[in-house]
Amino acid sequence: MFRSLQPSLIEKIPSLIKRPNIPTTTRDANWRALSDSLGDRSKNMKIWVEAYGCTASIGDSEMISGLLKESGYQLGNNERDSFLSIIVTCSVKDVTEHKMLHRVGQLMKTGKPLIIAGCLPKANKKLLETTYPTASLLGPHAINRTIDVVKSTISGRRVVALEDSASDKVNLPRVRVNPVTSIIEIASGCMSGCTFCQTKLAKGQLRSYRIGDILRQFRHDVNDGCKEIWLTSTDNGCYGRDIGSNLIELLESCISINGDYKIRIGMMNPMFLTNMTNRLAELFVESDRIFKFLHIPVQSGSDVILRKMKRGHTAKIFVDAVKTFRSRIPEVTIATDVIVGFPSESMEDFERTLEIIKATEPDVVNISKYSARPGTAAAKFKKLSSQIIKVRSKQMHLLINNIALKRNALWKGWEGEIIVDQSDTRWLRGRNYAYKPIHVTRSPGFQIQLGDRISVKIQEFSSHMLIG
Asked: What ranges in 161-242 are assigned the alpha helix state H?
């Protein structure tokens, strides 16, 4: 059974952080002894790779695994049967960072070499070096140095590779987490300056990849059997602004490629959507190769708070975008993000956020309780009490669950085709043209494979899924 692209392990990691009690000198001596005994056989060793966070982090883990496999290393099934572990981390929230640190501690306790990759090493290098001084570090823009870092770490030499590479993260070898899903990073970094965001510290300014390079990866993955093509970056909305292009031009090029696939467009900040809302909505209508799915984070319904966040958009810009898409495609799936309890958020500010969610009825709302991230401007702002944030978060959850239930109820009785992208012994799960997750009971005797298209009829629904 394949591993899900939506790793649940991060939610199961305890928040408790303990520094592993392994004497550094003993561990280093063990590593060197084992490395010396392996000699030229080191490439036959198994390496365990795990990843957390956004789609781009999962994509990074696929490229790391691909580079390892291409260089002759074997990929382990878990950290126990592997000689070395690589963890691709996320640092977007305070609670996420705590879970990452605890997971790193668990891996360190195995006494085996460890490489910490992803956003956390770049965003908070000092913390990792203080807490886990023997682990090697690999930055999100240093994927091309994976093999060098692995070789050095295996030999007992700690490496810090956080400098940005001149190479784009496209057209690299991959080992996909899901064989029917292609994750294509179209850019790194962004053009925003959000006061709460630590991702910018890790990924820096916008660096868009050339359309021709993206299309080569796109064609390869379609020919390789991928049915869902996920175009991802820190912010897809600003794609191309640094190279004289834009997202519309990229999408028009992508949908011209022959094959059996659908494109999922990743997150776009509303501030960059205004100049292309109408044309993007037209593409959604014109092309059956694009999932009718739009992820535009509003973060707050209060323009006062949005200015303090330095989001670059107003509440009206978000509302207008939703109205435009819903007027042309009523069943379009709208996803958004909301931060509850941003510093100085008054009850009036919070009520405006509730109002905007009620008015637009997003199908999916990702709620984050505000937590200060080191190095960000908002970390210096006076914070609200945790009790206020907790109460507001609960109120927001109740609202969005009711809206999700209402939106999913519209699909009852729908009949159509889905692409199967997850499977186990009992259930199949697929996505319809609006990227709605649909669960279907696996029938005895039917040999349905990942990537197959099957016809379903929706019989039941909840706030989280449709059941056919």
From this structure: 199-203, 211-223
